[in-house]
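Handout, section B. The chain below has 267 residues.
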Amino acid sequence: MTRGIRTSQLMPGILAGSAEGWALMSDGYLTSGRVVGPGAGRVFQTGAKPVCNGSAPQQNRLFLATQPAAGDWISIEGTDTVVVAYEFRPNTPPTGGTVGRIWIYDGGSAAAARVNLSDAIHGVVDTNRIAYGAVDMIAGFVARDAPAQTSLMIMEISGSETSRNVTENLTAPLDVWDQATTDGGMLETRQYLVMQTLTVNANHIAAGNVIFSMGIQAKAAWIINHNRPQDEAWAIVAATNAVVLTCSGAGTPNNQIADVVTCIAVE
């Protein structure tokens, strides 16, 4: 059974606990993140390297760049485990499809097919484009058309961590789901996340930089200036496990004396 961080060990102002055993990071840095495995029951800074998942919702992307052929179809498993199939039809109102599927007018183009599919997932009533028949709408999912990427994104909205199966039977060989399930390829990874906050002072400006000694070999880092939208560069220095932020002085948007700056680093 998965356990969350013990609330008695959470650090005020950084982590807070919920009744369900979730560790919530303040200020929106990481919402609904959970520590599991060997790191469970320990604070991040104790040397435990917890298994972390940012708890992004279950999701997937369907490429749909080509107008579907008559009879092409896709399916999504709802959060109630009922699999709902959507079949594209060339006529409006859509007719003549396979019984047990929701029939969708292809609209004469890939762009129109994506819009109609999205509306069907949302349960839109439009008999000229969508024929539900006796099939209930999908449980627990929303969809968003992404025209620039010629694709459709689906997202599970109930907060479930259970991945759902998706399939496609589309004529165009490149029109496929990213993954066979709604986890979209997400992984729980074992990693350190370290944060350090300090106040910029005159010595930093004189030296031309602020050095954050993170104690890990960061693979990525982010800088947040809590006083202004700063645009000065920073760099990861692997040899010293540090992140170096430029402080060249002058006026805003450069970092200024008395600015409070946070570095977030991930190994």
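Note. The helical segments are 110-121, 202-207. Compare this with the example in section A.
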